[in-house]
Amino acid sequence: MALLFCLLAGSVQANCRQALALGLDVSGSVDRQEYRLQLDGLAAALQRPEVMQLILTDTGAPIRLAIFEWSEPGHHRLLLDWSDIRSTRDLDRVSTLLNNTKRSAAPPGTAVGSAMLFGAELLSRQTGCWRRTLDLSGDGKSNLGPEPRVVKDQLTSSGITINGLVVGADDPGFDDKRYVQIGELSAYYNAWVILGPNAFVEVALGFEAFEDTMTRKLIRELDGLVLSDLGRGSVDIADLIRPIPLDSAQ
């Protein structure tokens, strides 16, 4: 057991716990107010105590973050390149960056498949992390670029996880269609976008709910991280330290 924990400690020092790439939809369906709700919502979610506790767990191996915007093929704006998050000061820096980011001109199309490929390329640089996750937010189906289902097939053996956050963006009112839209979009992401064991989709009924939904998603992604079993798949730490039955110990 002592040898096991020594080996684990050496692995902790050499790796990050999770590389998490966050992709934010800034296509034409996202107006100026929704853009701010999205970026400020992510900034606030990173400051939630329950999220901070998971990110800053003292294991010796940090969470590593990258954040980008996406719309049409070829339009990907990197807001935060890969950064280790080891302290509240690091989280404050990321949140301040998001709060102060101004919207740049973006083409109106929605290329979900291209965003998947861009995020996967970012994650390919982080081979030393225990888990690599693309966190893709969007309010519409793909209408340009490679089909998400084709990209998903291409990425099946990449070892990454893709989770989704879908937003029902119609204005509230008597003829509010967000419930129908969000059901269709959630099914679309579940079928053609998310990838990997335990991948999931979180749903926000409007950009006003983006902060709370992002908080839920980050908690699900950061809670219960697993350790790599030296290329033989993933193994939960609880399995490694399960007590030996008394009968076996005699």
Task: Characterize the structure shown.
The protein is built from ten helices and eight strands. It is of the alpha/beta class. It has a single domain, classed as Rossmann fold (3-Layer(aba) Sandwich), CATH 3.40.50.410. The chain has a six-stranded mixed sheet, sandwiched between helices. Helix 7 links the parallel strand 5 and strand 6. Helix 2 packs antiparallel against helix 4, helix 2 packs parallel to helix 8 and helix 3 packs parallel to helix 8. The longest helix is centred in the C-terminal third of the chain and has 15 residues. The N terminus and C terminus are likely disordered.
Q: Which helices and strands, and how do they pair?
A:
Elements: H1 2-14, E1 18-25, H2 32-45, H3 49-55, E2 63-70, E3 76-85, H4 88-100, H5 112-123, E4 131-138, H6 148-155, E5 161-167, H7 178-192, E6 201-204, H8 210-222, E7 227-228, E8 234-235, H9 237-240, H10 246-249
Parallel strand pairs: 1-2, 1-4, 4-5, 5-6
Antiparallel strand pairs: 2-3, 7-8
Helix pairs in contact: 2-4, 2-8, 3-8, 5-6
